[in-house]
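protein under study:
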Amino acid sequence: MFMHPLITHLTTVFREAADPERAVGAAAYMKNNFEFFGIPAPLRQSIVREALREQGLPEAADMAMIVRKLWSLPQREFQYAAMDISQRMVRKVDEHSIVWHEECIVQKSWWDTVDYLAARIVGPHFVRFPEQRLKTVHRWIGADNMWLNRTAIIFQLGYKANTDLRLLEQAILPHRGSKEFFLRKAIGWALRQYSYTDADYVQRFVERVELHPLSVREALKGIRRRQEHESER
């Protein structure tokens, strides 16, 4: 079976850089949901950068195959490498890449991959292909998958003044009573991030919409921090 040279290279170097003792701690931190080589993030990123310098960025047409293969491998560093490469290619792949972005969100799901994918890959993707945004995000809002719900809530984290507030509210409201920690946290995170752009909007939103206390606490963190700072002057 054909193996892209980039994957072959990463497999060899990752195995050489493996630290079994560190791998145990990394797996424990992730609730033992995944295997690890035990490679620190700065070293892993350096390995990926060096591989891309040596071999060049992959062809856009190869990205689906590369990402899917890396996602299928057992060690978590391969998924992180897939995301590192995807971020570098996010402005080169076409609109069909949303298919394998979504596959990555729902496979081997945990906050470490989903949050990166949402903010650094899906967010920029929808800037390039806004015609996909509403249909896809509305499907994710109503999906029976917590991680798609979370992505719908947080993909606009980097949008600032370009945030679609109507879409943000549509993503939040169906899940405001959720028992899922990751959805409660996502709601607060998305609102807190937007509070740096428009604190008054966020303050009004939490006053008029009944949210879980965790969501409210997270949403108002930035506002309260600024208020405390101003009162100390």
Remarks:
- The chain has a mean pLDDT of 96.
- Residues 213-231 form the longest helix (19 residues).
